[in-house]
Amino acid sequence: MRIRGWLFCSVMILGLSLSGWAKEPKEEKAKPEKTIKPEPKSNFSFELGYQQFYLSEKEIFDAVFGREYIDPIGIRFGAFPLKNLEVALGLGYSWNKGVGIGTGGTPSGETVRMTIIPVQLELGYRFDFKEEQLLVPSVGVGGDWWFFKEDNEFADDVEGDKAGWHAFAGIGLLLDRIDPSGRFFLEKEWGIENVFLEFTVRYAEMNTENGFDFSGTGYSLGLRMEF
Amino acid sequence: MLFLFSGLGFFASILLYAGASDFRSSIQVNLGAKVNHLAVNQDRFLISLDKANQKLKFFDTWNWRNISAFDIKSLGLGDTVEWIAVGQSKTLYLAGGSKRKIGWLNLADLDSLEFGESVSGLTLEGTTTLPYSISGQAWVIESSTAECLFVPADTGSRYHLYRLYFQDGVLKNRDEYMDTLIVSSIKLTASKEYVFARYYSGVFGAQLSAYQCSLAYTPTVLDPTSFPSILALGIDEYGEKLISSDTTTLAPKLKAYKVYKQPSPSKMLDFDLINDFNLSHPAKQLWVKKFYGEEEVLVFFREEGDFRALSLDGNTLPASGDRLVGSFSDTSFWLAESSSADGYLYLAVEDSKTVSVITANPRVYNLNLLSGATIITEPGGVIESDTFRIRFNYDKGRYYYLADCPDFAIKHNDCEKTLSYGSLGSANTVEIILSALALNDGKHNLGVFVRDSTSSPLHQGRNAIQAEIDLAPPPQNFSLKFGDEKIIIEFKSPNVADLAEYIVYYGTNDSAPLDQPELLDDTGGDGEPNSPITISYPQPNKEYKIVVYNLVNGTTYYAQIRTEDKGGKYAISERKNTIPQEVQTPSEMAGEKGGFNCLGSIAGTKRELKASEFVIWVCPAIVLLIIKIRLRRRR
Q1: Residue A31 touches chain B, beta carbons under 8 Å
Q2: What does residue B110 show for φ and ψ, rounded to 5 degrees?
Q3: Distances (CA, A) of B332 to A108, B64, B304, B327
Q4: Domain B364-470, what architecture?
């Protein structure tokens, strides 16, 4: 039942984090005016992205599906309990079709379909200090839980999950700087304060005790909105 | 044979024109009936009127073939039909009944005519009767919403001009002009937008007026003093270059005018005289035409029996340089054109039976299917030999394209599916071998295009022929794959409606002859289902997958498919082979057993949290808690 324990912890983390924006921090004493305004604190973020995740153990995927990576599309919700500190939950979806491999190593006619749904909970820090900062680097770590299902045309289906952790580093390009009029519209109509084009590299270590090894490095490109 | 040019005697290449421009080719088309009026409709159908026999002749210029004549006596337009006129729409206007009764009929059915089909079922959509007899040529122009027929009429002593306003083939309005002007002579010409009438009025003298196909437009009267006496006038399609044949001086001349619109908001026209061109004899008829792919605008005129051409430099006539296009008898010429659309001009002399085609386009002729018009695979024939040959001649050009054209839409643009293309040599003959299997069953309109360039502007000659394909084509994308103690046969049926059945043979006997696939299963066709496997009345364009179970791993199996159509024709596919063997799935390759180990309660297995996972999950919580506590202390 320990697993329930750390799941509980995870929920607590999220809960504590969400309480961060319930109260505004005390106003600090008046300081002399600065020429550079700090970036206002955002409360939430949402990202829609595409990732190519290159598996460390690529031989099986390469033989069956003809490529060394999976390419999930995904969404990611984030919350800022503190300025620049983000807790995010990501959900991806990847689907691949291939064929089983004969004993001679040649592709057969038996179709295999593989569905992978990676779920990631992560804590990240965004180096966003100035208002309208063009490039915003970010780093972070998080835990992974991946669901997989293998649908075989002629053999039994196999499904299960894998857990692990990941670290990431990314950089966001503030699109508002490129199109200020668009920013005004998004902020007025939707409450979106910033829109980034986000490029992220994630390194994941997954449970490899038996079976599939989903460890690897992923490169993702996404559109990120902060509210 | 309708398809053979020589049999009909349609074409005899005659070098009529050898000027500086590229208008060297001229073809003579024998319509088989006298030409008393000539017109082109839809940039495709050449239409002539034979007054003596009361017949309309149709000629399809997209495939250079005669369409049978249409008897117009039955239309009910009085004793005889005297003239015809067409615009860009599919309406043909005719006049009969002592040239007072005008009728119109719809030519839309011409579009769907097959090779060799007759024109039939043409009936009048409506008629109207003018108070006076029609005199001279009528002109058709259009606006965005309507089409107008401008008809000069003669009371015997004075002329009137009528405008018949049509919308969707229905006469909506009829206007009469010049009824109070005592007009003693009238000449008409037209651009796309305006009809120009030069008339001599007892009230105002010589005048030039412009009319539009608009109920709201008031006719423009241009400068009344510039056209005291002319024999003919013509204008280009854009209504900017007006040429008149002047007889006011002893030396006959052509005169060039620039026509332009007055500054907005005025809708009136104005014009300037540019210059003259001296003639040996008065030009009794003239036309201003531009050819597709050509820069220059040409003035064609009849000087006695000579048909001559002169290039305009902008709006200016050159000092010299008129060129003889052809010499004919000194009588009225009929000129019809699709020159601005595809570069063809058609010229006929009154009462002749031939039409001269004036063009700079390459000529494509003697187009033949060497295997005959109907291509049917021989019983028991080998599929790879189901080819046919097409041969044609050309007089110039650098590239050819052969295309499968849907619904005979053979326009100067490409048809949809190119079957063959290549560069042309100097032999003036091309022979192409095509696979009938590349075409589905049914009639195919094969268009041949010869071009002098691969990019616009270009000159393009064309011709077309129809082939009927009736084959039992083998399945497409036929594949044979192995599984564990099984083989998997996949194929796709072609888009052919008359397939009767597929018979799939498999077995281990490779010594069976290729044309006897039934012998494959003598020794090894012991799987489930048994060989042969029959699919009756397969659906067109459908993917089929057959799995044969209970086979022996390590044994080579062969498969072939026999296709039969409803007519009894058949084809046998190539032979493929594979060896069933054990197959590993990805999970088997990785040793993956599955199960929800990370959510232990779901999978029923215990889950130990690793130290690394502990750090990842718990550390962020601790950090957050510390930060929170510090913040609260500050408050």
Answers
A1: no
A2: -60, -30
A3: 79, 25, 10, 13
A4: Sandwich (2.60)
Instruction: Check pLDDT > 70 for residue A226.
Output: yes
- CA count, 13 A, side-chain hemisphere, B211: 28
| B590 Rama class: left (phi>0) / alpha (psi -120 to 50) / beta | alpha
pLDDT digits (tens, 9 = 90+) for B55-91: 999 998 888 888 888 898 888 887 788 889 998 788 8
Residue A6 lies in a domain: no
CATH (domain of A74):
2.40.160.20
Identity of the residue numbered B606: K
What pTM does this model have? 0.62
Return the residue in A11, A114, A161 with the most chain B beta carbons within 10 A, the one to mutate for interface testing: A161
Look at residue B628 in the predicted model and tell me its pLDDT: 62
* B482 near A CB under 8 A: yes
Q: Is B625 touching A (CB cutoff 8 A)?
A: yes
Among the four given CATH numbers 2.60.40.10, 3.40.50.620, 3.90.45.10, 3.40.50.300, the one describing domain B476-578: 2.60.40.10
Query: Which two structure tokens, joined as six digits, stand for B482?
Result: 């192995």
- DSSP E strands: which ranges in B42-89? 45-50, 55-60, 65-71, 81-86
Q: Where in chain B is the domain with CATH 2.60.40.10?
A: 476-578
- Number of folded domains that form chain A: 1
CB B403 within 8 A of CB B414: yes
pLDDT tens-digit profile of B192-232? 999 999 888 877 778 888 999 998 877 887 765 555 678 89
Q: What architecture is domain B11-359?
A: 7 Propeller (2.130)
| Structure confidence by residue, pLDDT tens digits, A155-178 | 999 999 999 999 999 999 998 887
ipTM: 0.78
Nearest residue of chain A to residue B599 (CA atoms): A3
